[in-house]
Amino acid sequence: MSTAVARAAESTDELAAAMARGQSLLAANCAICHGATGDGVTTIYPPLAKSDWLAANRSAAIRAIVAGLGEEITVNGRGFRGQMPPIILDDAPVADVLTYVVNSWGNTGGRVTADNVAAVRALSSV
Description:
This protein is mainly α. It has six helices and two strands.
């Protein structure tokens, strides 16, 4: 197996593992408000599914988890002004849950890493 193929397989395995952990974390920490299928609750909790806000605001999404969110946001053309408390998770679990969300329900995909979360957390002083 070539080095490039081995790296691609490892990357795929890492993504699959992050997705599995993220799905469990979403069920335990996020689904009560955003729903198990990411549909949210009309006018109260924004959808995570097919979210234009998540696609355009990856750092803000990380900040919302680690520091909470109280300002109004617009998701898929609708305004939401709820209070999201910070979720008390270390950097790797935050990365896993966001990796799951951005790769599910018609979102744009990609990988969120613990380093991404640490950088946003440092800027947020949380």
